[in-house]
Design brief:
single chain; about 725 residues; 22-stranded antiparallel beta barrel; about 55% strand; mainly beta; globular
């Protein structure tokens, strides 16, 4: 499927939700807050945030709020959770967020190859970049081109929860979701970094913050970047500033305001959306499209993005240790794009193309209110969480398509065509409202037993003004988990969870689609050793997605094609070993099948077939060693291996995408308050295809990123 079809498939604070925080028994006093500092040690100064997840040091995270909305030990959460901390981000130097997820088990990123304006991510076999992305615990629900982009420099860590999580967060991807956690104020920061990669794309970034007094602190992160990309003639310029401040009048009360503004202007680059016959294998005449080939034209290319966000996190702990929290954010994106793309057909040396343009505006508002406290009922110790959240999303877009663009010769390209302004069609507006009530009880009993019970009900309304369609739904989701903590750090667990995900597309039959639904059984064991700093995990799961939406053969139309079941095994390891050695590893095996197929497209996804773009096996291992003394003190070396197994290119399962193994490497030197690093992704310049979405007209395959050197240096004071 081409970029057009792929993206048409995707096209498918205070809200008065005050919790019972005004009870007389909750008289305020300067009690010890449950939100403790998060200290991150790396090449940057330590920093604290308001997430309440304790200390994160090295590559091993101990706690997460993402998996339960309470500050909980990762080994006590009855689902698989992976954390990419600030030190791992600095260590591996990802250029964008899908690259930062390369070493997370259960995650398959960059499925369309290199793409300068979208982070493509699958979690446990299901696409997560649309309905499975969060920032600071609040949803980035997005459709089509109405996406939000983040840069790894502005994050403290990335947390990935695998499996359905609607019982806490409402509508979302059944395979799991990704939560980006922003850097926050609280301590002194004086950090400047600059770098450049082998495509001539350079940047300068700064992280400055401090305490003004005992009550106020601030932090400002900024980055300016620009230059070339992997494909010829592509270039960009980007700028982002993210100020934040914290007001903490006492230990019981905290208000953190987070804001960001970014601008992007680029000539689009992509190693994806190319034909199967011309990438995975040569076409009938024996030709393949070069990996760095630019199939667009600068005379028509336009990509202008403005993105802004403003929100806050408020918390207060009462004298009986009950806490209230409110997280709120408003976000907006304005995006104008115009360009030429491959239509997935290579005849001889002639690559077919089309022109696609759009003008998209997105506005979103999200607020989450929480009440948390502890009670005892006999031998049972309860950590209770009650919440109410609201999500509003508005997507307005005008589009243009021209399939009559002349093809381009891959060996002798001629650029500089005559293109008039795009005749954009009438604007279409889609709105989504979601209001949810949820509760959670984490129960300790009998020594080491821990039960986790979740329940949630959501009220949904969706409207598509193009066809004047409206739909309202209600959805109940839940999670139940049981674990036992042994004194040696071993915690086996079992859980069952459900999810739903509303679509915002016309099904072509006079109504909007029913929400997709999901359910999962998971059993596993988590081991936090007492004799070294590490976290080892193993899980088996059985995950089913129903009312699966697929293209109905016309732009913007979806239809339900049946049910997909994914059974798998997932292993993960993070360890800070003695004498400066760090280890990050993962392995995932997926057995994905279409279990039920119906509707006009059933022949494209027959029962028993494996869904496209889902590799059967993925594995990764990163080792990093820092010399602790002697003449090499301050020097660190690292190396990683990433493996992506075979996947199917077509729904009929007749064409395969081969497996690939890629090697990464890094060398760093830190001395006093400065340092330098050289990272090399795909060290041996392995040429491979990440995945394919069909093989005929509008088929789409994406080359994996080629060898990329990144040289950077930093100073702090």
């Amino acid at each position: 499927m081409s970029r057009l079809k792929a993206r048409h498939l995707l096209l498918a604070g205070a809200s008065g939700l005050a919790l019972a925080a005004s009870q007389p028994a909750f008289a305020q006093q300067a009690a010890e807050t449950e939100l403790r500092p998060v200290l991150v040690e790396g090449r940057q100064a330590r920093s604290e945030d308001d997430s309440g997840v304790g200390e994160v040091k090295g590559v091993v995270a101990k706690k997460s709020r993402t998996g339960s909305k309470t500050a909980t030990e990762i080994k006590e959460i009855p689902q698989s959770v992976s954390v990419v901390g600030r030190e791992q981000i600095d260590m591996q130097s990802p250029q964008n967020l899908d690259e930062a997820l390369r070493y997370v088990p259960g995650v398959n990123p960059s499925t369309y190859g290199t793409d300068s304006d979208t982070d493509w991510v699958f979690v446990r076999g299901f696409q997560a970049d649309q309905t499975g992305v969060f920032l600071d615990g609040l949803s980035f629900y997005q459709t089509g081109f109405g996406t939000f982009l983040m840069d790894p420099f502005f994050l403290e860590r990335i947390e990935v929860v695998k499996g359905p999580s609607s019982a806490l967060y409402g509508g979302g991807n059944p395979g799991g979701f990704i939560n980006y956690v922003s850097k926050r104020p609280g301590e002194r920061h004086r950090y400047v970094e600059t770098g450049v990669n082998s495509f001539g794309n350079g940047y300068v970034a700064a992280d400055i913050g401090d305490k003004v007094n005992d009550v106020f602190s601030y932090r400002v992160n900024g980055k300016l970047s620009g230059g070339g990309w992997e494909t010829d003639q592509s270039q960009d310029i980007r700028g982002t500033i993210a100020p934040s401040f914290k007001w903490q009048p006492d230990e019981a009360t905290s208000l953190t305001v987070l804001a960001s503004l970014s601008r992007t202007d680029l000539v689009h680059t992509s190693t994806g959306f190319l034909p199967y016959y011309g990438t995975v294998v040569p076409n009938a005449e024996g030709y393949k499209v070069p990996r760095d080939f630019f199939y667009g034209d600068k005379d028509v290319e336009q990509y202008d993005r403005t993105q802004a966000m403003l929100g806050y996190e408020f918390s207060h702990t009462f004298d009986n240790d009950w806490s209230v929290r409110q997280n709120l954010r408003y976000g907006a994106v304005s995006l104008q794009e115009d360009g030429l793309y491959s239509n997935g057909v290579l005849t001889g040396t002639s690559l077919g193309r089309y022109r696609w343009a759009h003008d998209t505006d997105v506005n979103t508002f999200t607020v989450d209110n929480q009440l948390e406290g502890k009670v005892e009922t006999g031998a049972l110790e309860h950590t209770l969480l009650f919440g109410a959240d609201y999500r509003w999303y508005k997507h307005k877009a005008s589009t243009f398509y021209d399939g009559g663009v002349s093809p381009i010769d891959i060996l002798n390209p001629v650029y500089g065509g005559v293109y008039g302004p795009p005749a954009l069609g009438p604007a279409t507006t889609t709105t989504l409202n979601q209001f949810g009530l949820y509760a959670q009880d984490q129960v300790r009993f009998g020594g080491g037993w821990l039960a986790t019970l979740n329940g949630r009900y959501d009220f949904l309304s969706r409207k598509l003004d193009t066809s004047n369609l409206e739909r309202s739904d209600g959805a109940f989701t839940g999670r139940a988990g049981l674990a036992y903590e042994f004194a040696n750090g071993l915690t086996p667990y079992v859980s069952y969870s459900t999810s739903f995900s509303p679509t915002t597309s016309d099904n072509g039959a006079g109504s909007l689609m029913e929400p997709e639904t999901g359910r999962q059984w998971e059993a596993g064991v988590k081991y936090a050793p007492t004799w070294f700093d590490g976290l080892l995990t193993a899980a088996v799961f059985d995950l089913t997605k129903q009312n699966v939406a697929s293209s109905a053969g016309a732009p913007g139309l979806l239809e339900a094609i049946g049910e997909v079941r994914v059974r798998g095994v997932e292993l993960g390891a993070q360890a800070d070993l003695a004498n400066g050695l760090k280890l990050i590893g993962g392995l995932t095996y997926l057995d994905a099948k279409v279990t039920t197929a119906y509707g006009p497209s059933y022949d494209l996804a027959p029962a028993g077939a494996t869904p496209i773009q889902v590799p059967d096996l993925t594995a990764s291992l990163w080792l990093d060693y820092a010399f602790q003394s002697g003449r090499f003190e301050g020097l660190s070396v690292g190396a990683g291996l990433r493996y992506v197994g075979e996947s199917w290119a077509d729904r009929a399962n007749t064409l395969k995408v081969p497996d690939a193994a890629v090697v990464d490497a890094a060398i760093r030197y830190d001395r006093d308050n400065w340092g330098a690093a050289l990272n090399v992704a795909n060290l041996f310049d392995k040429e491979y295809v990440s995945s394919c979405l069909g093989a005929g007209f509008f088929g789409s395959c994406g080359y994996g990123a080629g060898r990329t050197f990144t040289l950077k240096a930093h100073v702090n004071w």
